[in-house]
Amino acid sequence: MQNRDIVVVAVSTGGLAALEVLLGDLDPGLRASVFVAMHVDGYRSVLPSLLQNRTRWQVQHAEDGQPFAPGVVYIAPPDRHMILQHDATVLTRGPKENFTRPAADPLFRSAAVHYGPRVVGIVLTGRLDDGSAGLKSVHACGGFAIVQDPEDSVAQDMPANAIAAVPTAQVLPLQQIGNAMAKAINTAVAPRAAGSGPSETLRTESRMTETGQSSAAVLERIGRQVGLTCPECGGAIWRVDTGVPVRYRCHTGHAFSSASLNAAQAEQVDDAIWSAARLLRERILLASEEIATGGATADATGRLRASVAQWEAAYQQLRSLAATTDGPLAKTDIA
Predict the structure, then answer these.
(1) Cβ contacts of 6 within 8 Å, gap of 6 or more
(2) What are phi and psi of 100, to 5 degrees?
(3) What is the model's pLDDT at position 4?
(4) Pick the residue with more confidence: 294 or 124?
(5) What does each C-alpha distance from 15 to 50, 56, 139, 237 come to in angstroms?
């Protein structure tokens, strides 16, 4: 028997305040290490120093190849995925997952694969569904799942989607999660039984993150190709057969859920509509200038006037379409 000693946390919008509450009264004597993936992308992060003033735990950015120790909170640094293997934190600039780096799913997957029942997975406030597939992996490998109550969250998407992925997860208000986490850490669990390791799909995806390597042949083993292209690189996409949440991977390694893929497509459609509207407006202005200067023949001027009327109608249609389509989600921030 052994205690759970690996805690992985996914958080995004509203994350600073949520982490302050989670870590604020946590006993630093707990024999566990905490690993946090928060969506900060490539921006400079001062999250460790902000949190250090709110907790008795040591808080620091993770370092590549650094052995981890109990009583320490490791924060994934900007523009790096943080994964766990051989009792050390490993940082990689591998392909983005759910259009972000760092992402929670790679962290959760690596913890599940390497530490199984020793893992406590926690999903807090945030948009879209990063962490849902990762929490499902933790649960599948015998770990303990905790989710912030969506009604108690600044952004409900991540908690709600995590609950859909792991219906048996313990759902609690933020103020109660610290105590639940401590209780889970102090509960002894049996080691992973022989032959009950992670699935081939989970092992394969974990290796993809660890090595940064992917291929069509590998993806054929864990999914099926669909008629979509990757918004990140334009490559072919495979649907990974893991149930809810529905997920996709391209052959270069980018991974995303249907929710994050839909959000990216909505942003691209929005950009395309406004780009087309701008080009139409410029054609209208150019034709109007030519008509006003009298540089064209009477027949040509008549044709230009007819074209301007058509372009103006199309321009108004595009503006109307832009107002009725799902526009891009607002960028998330670290607070």
Answers:
(1) 32, 33, 35, 84, 111, 115, 118, 119, 120
(2) -145, 155
(3) 94
(4) 124
(5) 12, 18, 23, 31
Instruction: Give the whole-angstrom CA distance, residue 4 versus residue 112.
Output: 12
pLDDT > 60? residue 282: yes
Residues 6+ apart with CB under 8 A from 52: 58, 59
Question: What letter would DSSP give residue 331?
Answer: P
Spatial neighbors of 18 by CB under 8 A, at least 6 apart, are 11, 124, 125, 148, 153, 154, 174
User: Would you tell me how many other CB atoms lie within 10 Å of the CB of residue 99?
Assistant: 21
Closest CA to 148 of 317, 25, 260, 17: 17
Q: What positions carry a catalytic annotation?
A: 12, 39, 130
| Phi, psi angle pair for 317, to nearest 5° | -65, -40
The C-alpha atoms of residue 110 and residue 106 are separated, in whole angstroms, by 6
Residue 236's CB is within 10 A of a number of other CB atoms, namely 17
Residue 65 confidence (pLDDT) above 90: yes
The H or E element spanning position 108 is helix 104-115
Residue 327 confidence (pLDDT): 54
**Looking at residue 293, what is its pLDDT?**
84
Give per-residue pLDDT as tens, 154-189.
999 999 999 999 999 999 999 999 999 999 999 989
* Per-domain boundaries in the chain: 2-189, 214-253, 263-324
State the CATH architecture for 2-189.
Answer: 3-Layer(aba) Sandwich (3.40)
